[in-house]
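Let us work through a complete example step by step.
Step 1: write down the sequence.
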Amino acid sequence: MASQTWARQAFALSNVGLVLVQCRRIANRSGTAHQEGRMTRHRLSVVAFTALAVSLAFSSEGNAQFTATYEPLAPSPLRVATSWYSGAVTNDGKFIYGLGHSHNAYGDNSLWAFDPTTNSHRQLFPSTGNKWLWETYLDGEGKKQVVAGSGHWATLDPVADKALYAFFGGPTITALTNRNNHQAFYMPARNEFWVLAGTTFYQKSPYFAGRFNLDTNRWVNLSTSLAEFSAGLIAGSGGWVAPNAATAVCKDLNTVVLFGGMNGTGGVRIIEPNPAGPEPYRWALAPKPPIHLPAENVRHNAVCVGDTVYFISGQERVPNVKCCRAPDPGPFWSFHVPSRAWTRLADGPPGGYFLTLTYDSDAKALLYYGGSASNRLWVYDLIAERWTDLTGTVPGLPRADMHAGGFVPGFGHVFKGGNRYDTAGRNEGYSASSKMLVVRLVPPSERLRSGRAVPAVSAVPDSTAPAGNVGHASEIAATLAPPDTPSAHDRRDNSGGWLGGRRPTSSALAAVRRGESLPAVNQAANVPPVNASHPATETDTGRQSASHSRAWAATQSAAQPGGRLVWTRIPLPGYPKSPQGTIKHQRLVEGPAGRVYLLGGDWGGGPHQNTGRQEVYSFDPLSRTGNWRQEAPYCGTADAPVNWHTDEAGVAWDAKRGVFWKLAGTQYGPKDACLASGGSVRTKVIQFDPAKRKWHVPEGFDQRDFWYVGNGVLDPERDQLVQITDTVAWHLDLQTGQWLRYPLPAGAHRFNAIAARLGRAIWFVNRDERLESYDLDTHTLSGHGQWPYPKKNGWGMAMTFALGSKVLAIWPTSGPKEQRLAAVYDPATNQWITLDQGDGWGNVGTLHSSGRVILMGGGINGPAHHNKFVWVGQVK
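Step 2: predict the structure and record it as tokens.
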């Protein structure tokens, strides 16, 4: 360990020496006057020695750099050689794997999924490899020959092939053949596993590519060519890259990037969204990359982070040299997908034969593992922009190459298949391909101290769900990643003044208007750190310790004043065109043509029960009069019943299906004539079609009732509707109709929160008046401290709306004389600015696509407090 420390210090000193040399060169060029040059050299020397101190600090003992742990996982039941293996992490946190069975005479083409929450494997698709047939003939010498292109699947016999016959529902096999040297990747937007090109034991197999759908666990496309694979899906034709090309999927861009490979010398092929349509994707080309070409055996050498692909060299083919050269150090590149720009980064680890590079979204780092029968382990810190060699620091980490891997948030880097080697470098044999392992990274201790997140929460299957549905849940033990650190030039100095002479009010307001980040500030000396909203229990703390303390303390800056809300108002015409009187707990949701729909909640007007009203109203917030209309009556019909007396419901507009989803919260009221006639129904999940103006109870949906809820938030990427309750985040899968259950830390109440989705997180203020965010991918909760006003009664909670990339929070008011409070929070800087709310008020609201915030409701303390208007406001 001491030798490693001195090696790191020597490396740091060598870097500082380079800095000093460069500083001297710059100083000698920085001015003609001797005094100016001397002053410049002095300043740059200070910079260099500062860098020296920082470098030595990073090379000191303790958790100043990344560390890692390793753990074997349950071996795969698929016990065949898996050299050119394929695998990827799916939306629900499983690891799908298969194909690449290089020494399996039958060409096993099964697909499997590993579940990290149960450490178990499940077969998604059975092998049909031994059912492949060729048409043959005898040549002139009496030798059997295969008819080119005649390969096909055998017809299944209902008795002899009973299991496969039952799986396919008949005698016809629909499956892709096994192959090596192919490209295989997971498309999150489609929940599909795509396999293209490669070689097979059936070299003349007609199947070039296929798409496997994980909703149905069936091959939904089998193609004989790239053109056939692209037809109706990907516009244009970019040609194909070489086998074993580097492949990276950019989830945020819904884009795939491919380049390099065996004998590949061409440009970059890109599959990206096609805004012109009708195909959802299009082929795009980028110029020949500046990396060494051909880049051999690099299929797992690239990963995408946001909009940028990172690539580490593996092997390089050079003329007149037996394959291949492994560069040391390895050239390291980034490719910015939108601009198609390549950037050479600091050189990285040595290249190797079939290594694997994965991205750790928790630790904000890249992990390099294995290659060339080694157990090399390197980490690239995306925040500090530096490599760390962890090779030899993880006891027992196996030697491997040709393996596939992927990162499961909150669990770690999962690796499967490939070749395994003993400590002497001897291949352990084909059966070792079934072994699996997980590597977990622990970030540097200084980053652990700088973040803001509540302790990790394990997502568990809903114990009350039918047993057959448990397999659909993404039950991942999740942890939170530290936030990005604001750059120094954006921070406030110790005197409280603003660096660069910026005025907080004007710059903050301008940032809100432009949709940019608010200025970041250091925590003031007199403001104590704000702890996570819900501290870890004793059990949580034990889990954190075992996970190397992945909890970070929260920090928050004092709010800055700035901006105001300016309003217009629309009168309420009253029954039967609109609600009237005491109004609360409605859900305002924008629907077709920009109209705002009112569903559920309490209001007055007409002869009906005022608790949990059953009508549907809509209005145009951009119209002077609102153009109000009643969309559906108080009572429906037996064929289209309304939702019986729902209060505090969850509602969201689903543009994909053209319906509103309504998830009942509390339900109470009279068992009136409408219910007796079948015109209303007590149900949890129901749809309202605004085009038909009718309600519909979808078939096959789990109708369990869990009462108090927040408003519904649609997750279009996963096709789910999410509801936040006090201790659980419930996800309704809109395709299967089943609920997924993710526990939240106990603490302040969260029900009835008006929540908003920004990117991949849901934001809301709890009843302790503290801001929280729930990550839709990791299913974890982050605390962001008290909102910028003194705590009041512990019952109300500020409504939150997505204002661009910011969170707009407004306190619900029930009367015209109550205090009005509003503020904007910037997640990028952890900074609030307060707003003058002006005249507008209400206790329910929404944010319109026009950028206007809409408020209405109130009057729970009598007629003098009734709100007779809808308020439509803009941030100025």
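Step 3: interpret the result. The CA atoms of residues 280 and 401 lie 36 Å apart.
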